[in-house]
């Protein structure tokens, strides 16, 4: 049968995920089956636990070891250049930093403006940097949480896509608080990747607008025309 023109499905947007460690956010994203193709998982550490998960799930993995560039004239620049090459071989629409523990050069960040996101374990702009849970406990804050944001050249800064806040309990330890925040990270990051893949994020200065799904009106109108129990999602 001659294939009919015009019915090829659009290719899924491609995503590269950068990790340094256990990769629980990577796992949450993969298991959410987002409408994108995870083209590769790249780690700066050969022993990152998330690499085994990616490999077991048939995702290409690569290591760009930052220690290999320690003797370069500009170690940070040389590492970022190698990382950029490794990423760009996959021509991703989106770069996802999922526990990627490296400070990136401005040139690297600029190259991915509007198409690189990060998850940070605090309610930004509070507590950029490391040890966020410990610092929140030391300050006695009652609300703590996590943030998904577009990456800019200022550390843990950039237009915020989504945040979740959790209450801090009087007897919380760093471990109990980080576990509750991580649970929220695993809800937020897959959703943010899905929004991006669906083309629903618009950066407007410091703010991000999340556009409604294209069929939102149709679903609402269909719901108005009938009583359906239990309610349909779409
Ligand atoms: C997460 O808490 C993330 O917010 C932070 O690093 C941690 C990474 O955890 N940037 P995992 O590797 O995704 O399990």
Word description of this protein:
The chain is of the alpha/beta class. The chain has one domain (14-213): Formyl transferase, N-terminal domain (Rossmann fold). The chain has helices spanning 24-31, 49-56, 75-88, 106-111, 132-139, 174-197, 216-225; strands at residues 14-19, 37-43, 61-63, 94-97, 116-120, 143-150, 160-167, 201-204, 207-210. A 7-stranded mixed sheet has the order 3-2-1-4-5-6-7, with helices on both faces. A two-stranded antiparallel ribbon has the order 8-9. Strand 2 (37-43), helix 2 and strand 3 (61-63) form a beta-alpha-beta unit. The two termini are 33 Å apart. The structure holds 5-O-phosphono-beta-D-ribofuranosylamine.
Which term fits the overall shape?
globular
Q: How many angstroms does the end-to-end distance come to?
A: 33 Å
User: What is the name of the CATH topology?
Assistant: Rossmann fold
Mean pLDDT across all amino acids: 94
Structure in a nutshell:
This protein is of the alpha/beta class. It contains seven helices and nine strands.
Structure keywords:
single chain; 234 residues; Rossmann fold; two-stranded antiparallel ribbon; 7 helices; globular; binds 5-O-phosphono-beta-D-ribofuranosylamine
């Amino acid at each position: 049968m001659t294939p009919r023109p015009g019915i090829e499905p659009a290719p899924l947007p491609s995503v590269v995920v950068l990790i340094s460690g256990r990769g629980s956010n990577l796992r949450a994203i993969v298991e959410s089956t987002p409408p994108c193709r995870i083209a590769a998982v790249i780690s700066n550490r050969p022993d990152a636990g998330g690499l085994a998960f990616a490999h077991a799930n048939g995702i290409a993995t690569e290591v760009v070891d930052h220690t290999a560039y320690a003797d370069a004239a500009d170690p940070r620049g040389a590492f970022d250049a190698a990382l950029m090459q490794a990423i760009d071989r996959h021509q991703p629409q989106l770069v996802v930093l999922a526990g990627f523990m490296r400070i990136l050069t401005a040139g690297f960040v600029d190259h991915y403006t509007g198409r690189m996101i990060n998850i940070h374990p605090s309610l930004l702009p509070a507590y950029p940097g490391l040890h966020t849970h410990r610092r929140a406990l030391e300050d006695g804050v009652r609300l703590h949480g996590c943030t998904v944001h577009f990456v800019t050249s200022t550390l843990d800064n950039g237009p915020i896509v989504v945040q979740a806040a959790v209450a801090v309990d009087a007897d919380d330890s760093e471990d109990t608080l980080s576990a509750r925040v991580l649970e929220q990270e695993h809800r937020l990051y897959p959703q943010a990747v899905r929004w991006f893949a669906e083309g629903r994020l618009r950066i407007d200065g410091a703010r991000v607008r999340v556009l409604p799904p294209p069929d939102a009106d149709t679903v609402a109108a269909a719901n108005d025309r009938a009583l359906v129990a239990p309610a349909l999602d779409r």
